[in-house]
Amino acid sequence: MISRFEAEQALSRGRILVRDAAEADIASVAAIYAHHVLYGLATFEEVPPSTGEMLARRAKVLKLGLPYLVAESGGRVAGYCYAGAYRTRPAYRYTVEDSVYVAKDLCGQGIGTALLKELIARCGNGPWRQMLAVIGHSENTGSLTLHARMGFRLVGTLRAVGFKLGRWVDTVMMQRELGQGGPEHPDSQK
What we know:
This protein has 190 residues and is of the alpha+beta class. It has helices at 4-12, 26-39, 51-63, 111-124, 141-149; strands at 17-20, 68-73, 76-85, 95-102, 130-136, 153-164, 167-177. The termini are far apart.
C-alpha cells in the first residue's frame, strides 16, 4: 500500500491509469465502497457488500456489455466506476446509469474525472444514448460538480426519499446524452 503523499505525487504528475477492473481489483473496490456505505450518503446501502457480492455485481455489468473500470495510481486502486442498466424494462435499453466512487483519502484529486470521462467515452461508443446520474444527497457537491463538469444537466431532485445515518436524504437526478443522443432511431446511428 502506498502512502497518501506518494499517491498525491503520482496524481500531480498525471499518473492516473484508468483500465478495465480485474477480479483481483474487487477486494480494493469493495473496501472503497464500504467506506461510502458506512459513512456517506452517496449510496443508500447501509451494509457493505462482501467481496463476493461485489464480484457478482461486476459480472452482471460485464454480462450486459457495459464497462466496469478502476483508476490506478502508484500501484493502488484509487477509485472505480461502472455503468449499469437504468431500469430493466426493454424500452430503457439505450439508457445507462453511472456510478463513481473514489478512495476516501483521494477525493478531489481528479480521479473521479478520469474515471467518468473514460466511462462516458466507452458508453458513447456503444448503443447507449443517455446516461443518468442518480446522486445520493443533494449536498454532495463533489459528485454534483463532477457530473456538471462532464456535461450532465440537472433534471430533478427527489426530496427526502431515503433515510440513512439518522437523517432524510434527497436524490438528485442528472442526465447527459451519449453519442448522438436520442433524436434518431437507435439502429440508424451505427
